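Minutes, project check-in
Item: structure for the 260-residue chain
Input as provided by the requester:
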Amino acid sequence: LRKHVRTYCGWREQTTTPLWRIEAPSSDLPVIILFESPVLARHPDNPTDTKAYGSFVAGLYDSCTLVGSSGPTAGIQVNFSPVGARLLLNRPLEDFTNRMVALDDVWGTDAARLREQLAEAASWNDRFAILDREIAARINSAAPVHPSVAWSVQRLVASRGQVRIGELARATGWSTRHLGARVQHEFGLAPKTLARVLRLGHAVGVLKDEGAVRLAEVAIECGYYDQAHFSRDFRAFTGLTPSAFLRGRLPDAGGVAADR
């Protein structure tokens, strides 16, 4: 599973006050299975439209989301690569773009079965073993992605969005337009947008690491022309400046608090 699954994370969390985190777009597609308390989500520009989600899967995003909780939470999050998520769900990801979709609506009664098995397992290792079997079975039985489409997306991910789309098109023998249409259908974002998300996701990962950072160096490392370009793109995707994002970092890799 290693090339398709990025991370497993099991957690229990108790906060004394409601906490909202900012979730910046990235190439990780999460499947979250909750044991208690729903996850709350809303768009930063529409605070009155808050929705509660139980277990869910999310597609690729080209904007940030605010995620919060109204009580103690516990569950498991599995982060997939784009190709891994496409195989796991066994369908094009276009319908999941910028959306969180209830797992019951995706897998039907299998979602409830898996949630029950995980909740009743005796330890986190037992839960992870259950996930190993479930994910492997689904990926192994999935219809394959066209090799040129899968390769193009994997190259984009490996380069963190710094490979030219024209170069990918030439390598596949397709036109840039045809490659773009195929990638958008299978994964939900056009290649140029996905490349921007990947650069931003790399930058967010660097900024989330605790410790001092030099924004100019982060900009260069992540493929931006200069710090001004980095700041514009960062604000476009997250609604925050890089400096404000840094100030919101929570301890113990707890994410980034939203102050809106």
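Outcome recorded: Strands lie at 5-13, 19-23, 29-36, 39-42, 51-53, 56-58, 65-69, 73-80, 100-102.
No further action items on this chain.
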